[in-house]
Amino acid sequence: MADSLNGVFDVAAFLQSLAVRCVELLGVSAAGVLLADPQGELRLVASSGEHTWVLDLFALQQEQGPCLDCYRSGAAHTNIALGGLEATTVWPEFSTRARAAGYEMTQVLPLQQGDQMLGTLNLFQAKPRVLSPDEVALAQALADVAAIAIVQRRSLERSETERGQLQEALTSRVAIEQAKGVLAERWRCTVDDAFGALRRHARANRMRLAECARQVVAGELDTEGIRRP
Which residue in 222, 185, 183 sits closest to 199, CA to CA? Predict the structure, then answer.
């Protein structure tokens, strides 16, 4: 959160790191951050893993799922059994696809500052383990950190509109996805491995992750200089 005061703060990298930390600290299988675009549509901007089925589950929640309900109401949805009555009745397609991907439970926490809803933090669990009240409180604290950092960053950038920072994160995500695809195809590796190599190169060269991705896609960066997975 302190990094959000830095002039070169990278929102995409910050949210990516937060998603990874959620998995490490809470013992869940996957985590993702969804932010609302200027039209109020939820978009995935960061996830702990890059597997296609995980990304599909996050994308599906633009239309149906607990993330959409959480964003609209501002209320957390915790310890949802994906095979339970609530999930199969309220979100039938989402629950079916989530279970097919190997997940048994999900948690959704709001990213909110005051009465301003920014998006949601979504957690998936492969094992049917109920998170304790302390773990849920920790998950919400991590979501609050993300919300505070986004709002703080927004207040420091006078030239941007209220939702400008969110749009930057969404644009960065597109560039990162394209770069992952380019590297995965070029190296004949998984997108997870391609993303890991891209992130390591950006860190080693003190580059913004999104800028590194843009240069890969534009052919401005010699990919032979990136250490392969």
Answer: 183
pLDDT of 162 above 60: no
Instruction: Please compute the mean of the pLDDT values over residues 20-45 and round it to a whole number.
Output: 90
Task: Mention every residue, 6+ apart, whose C-beta is less than 8 A from residue 144.
Answer: 111, 112
Arch. (CATH architecture) of 168-225: Orthogonal Bundle (1.10)
- Whole-structure pTM value: 0.70
Q: What is the CATH architecture of 2-156?
A: 2-Layer Sandwich (3.30)
If we measure between CA atoms, which residue out of 132, 134, 217 comes closest to residue 177?
217
Domain with CATH 3.30.450.40 in the chain: 2-156
Label residue 50 by pLDDT band (50, 70, 90).
Answer: low
Cite the residue boundaries of each domain of the chain with CATH code 1.10.10.10.
168-225
Burial string for 82-120 (b: 16+ CB within 10 Å, else e) reads: beeeebeeebeebbebbeebebbbbbbbbbbeeeebbbb
What distance in Å separates the CA atoms of residue 53 and residue 1, rounded to the nearest whole number?
Answer: 30
What pLDDT does 127 receive? Answer: 92
